[in-house]
Prior knowledge:
By secondary structure, this protein is α/β, with parallel strands linked by helices. The protein has helices at 56-61, 73-88, 112-126, 141-144, 150-160, 180-183, 189-205, 236-248, and strands spanning 6-9, 17-19, 22-23, 25-26, 29-31, 44-49, 96-99, 135-138, 165-169, 172-176, 210-214, 253-256, 263-267, 270-274, 288-295, 298-305. A seven-stranded mixed beta sheet has the order 1-9-10-11-12-14-13, covered by helices on one side. It has a five-stranded mixed beta sheet with strand order 8-7-6-15-16, with no helix packed on it. It has a two-stranded antiparallel ribbon with strand order 2-5.
Amino acid sequence: MSAPNEWQLPSAPxxxxxxxxxxxxxxxxxxxxxxxxxxxxxxFYFVQGADPQFGQMxxxxxxxxxxxxxxxxEELRLAKLAVRKVNKLxxxxxxxxxxxxxxxxxxxxxxxxxxxxxxxxxxxxxSRVKSEIPLVCVCGNHDVGDTPTVETINKYRSDFxxxxxxxxxxxxxxxxxxxxxxxxxxxxxxxxxxxxxxxDSQLSAAAGSRIIxxxxxxxxxxxxxxxxxxxxxxxxxxxxxxxxxLYNAGVRHFFCGHYHRNGGGFYKDLExxxxxxxxxxxxxxxxxxxxxxxxxxxxxxxxxxxxxxxxTIAFD
Length: 316
């Protein structure tokens, strides 16, 4: 499998658009830009969501869960609300990124018919994001499996596009990583190695630029030196190796999901930001999204419950 491409997001309105796939609805839109997007062009913002995870509420609330009988009506309602809120934002965000677990059913070991229905509904809902707002999808463990295989990675790439990639936007370099290659690459060590070599090349190519990263699983929940959690963070040895690599390359912001609660902390002055879910909450937060403002010398962010997402985004 070839390494993912580097994409650039142009200033709206977009002239060129590549539709990577068309299954009932156009989804995962990458926009072809120019070298101008490698140059700072002024303050902007983007929207980060995570874990819409169609079907998870049914799984959690039914002790006798049967995948073929699952429903995701509440997740559909919340996802539709998220899309409406993003579409009403002014000025328009430069992009809308969803950090993993797009649907709940696993690609193996579950009900594949239910998985396909969830994917179909995800695409139907999120295809309603306005065309001038690029939609960027990040893979999560429920999208490629806790222990991914070549087959599950290929299936994800067929459904949603690359599982790791980079793009420029207004002079900022964005890197999207597949966190399952760090969590459990047992069946795909060659893909994990490929991603890490690619990451090295991307960090080198963007040296001197602001670099912001995304993945699904966070490196840590609260502290960079915390013990490994079987579900919610990355093994400390892998974690510190990659965090040190990112820090030395100038990365100072890393955005994740997966935890279904807001969280995060710092590795030196690299901020790890965990954004709670659009879907099911496992803590005291409400379903929501994060607005991330990018200025030339500062990145700031705020989480909003869906009902409280503002219509207008102001820069001080």
